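We modelled the chain as a single entity of 342 amino acids. Its sequence is:
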Amino acid sequence: MPELMQNPASIDVPLLNKSTDNRPKVLVVDDNPTNVELISVQLKPFNYAITKCYGGEDALECVKKDPPDIILLDLMMPRMSGYEVCRLLKSNPETQFIPIIIVTALKEIDDKIKAIELGSDDFLMKPYNKLELISRVKSLIRVKQLYNELDSCESVVFTLADALEAKDVYTRGHSERVSKYSVLLGKQLGLAEQELEDLKRGALLHDIGKVGVKEAILNKETKLTQEEIAHIRTHPTRGYEICKNLKSFKTLLPIIRNHHERWDGKGDPDGQKGEEIFLGARICAITDAFDAMTSNRPYRKGISPIQSAAIFERELSSGQWDPALLQVFIKMIRASYEEEKS
């Protein structure tokens, strides 16, 4: 089945830490047992939960089972080098924020540069100063704990968004679908990987402000009054207020706040016009409308994707959506329809 005709793909979920031990977790990786024991002894007074690994492949398995708060990693190991371990962990979204300190006997500047380019967070040359090792471990564990707190805050917001949709059988899954369609359109436009990630997350949260809208209005089966419409139209600014203090949401805020702006400047809440409107918000405006058209509501049945394409085509010059983006989306719908027929 073509992607526009399918249910949304599942949202990526990070690795879960199954450990009940709340101590900071340190993973020490070196093919030389003496080096592993030395570091373990030096860190023992600080009550860290220390895991010992003697090769790169073992280290990756340990991280998969129970992600640590920091990794102390040797470079020169048989079968899989520390370089490769670092590359794999830092290129994986689930593990990229685990701090890695390279602890190695290699002394050339090129070795240090290579490790840093692969994403390592610090570099210690053997023989190292014990106090320096301890200081760097403590510092990077604090950084990791801040990331963990940030993840917790983000999780609360996304859980809130899920809870909002769960209240209404008719809108359940709406934000996931809008997120999926937005990413598909973003890919067609050639957006970079980080832009696609921001688009995915921003679209997931585009309606978070409806948490502040009365449930009776959201679920009303009859026509809304002008006062009720005005109340619902406040959800972009409510969503912005909910998310604005999370620094990691900075790039998502224009999508949350401005997905109901219009190309002609007659939208909400800021009356932005044309390319003043953030690209992600313009994309979300189209995919939000598409999902609204093709989903069932208490007062009407959803139309087919190909019928929505005809409506969009008639509305190209209406001033509601970015006409260039809309043309790309119409082509996507029709290509998906033709693929489904064949």
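As a brief sanity check on the tokenised model: Residues 167-341 form a domain with the Hypothetical protein af1432 fold (CATH 1.10.3210.10). The chain has a mean pLDDT of 88.
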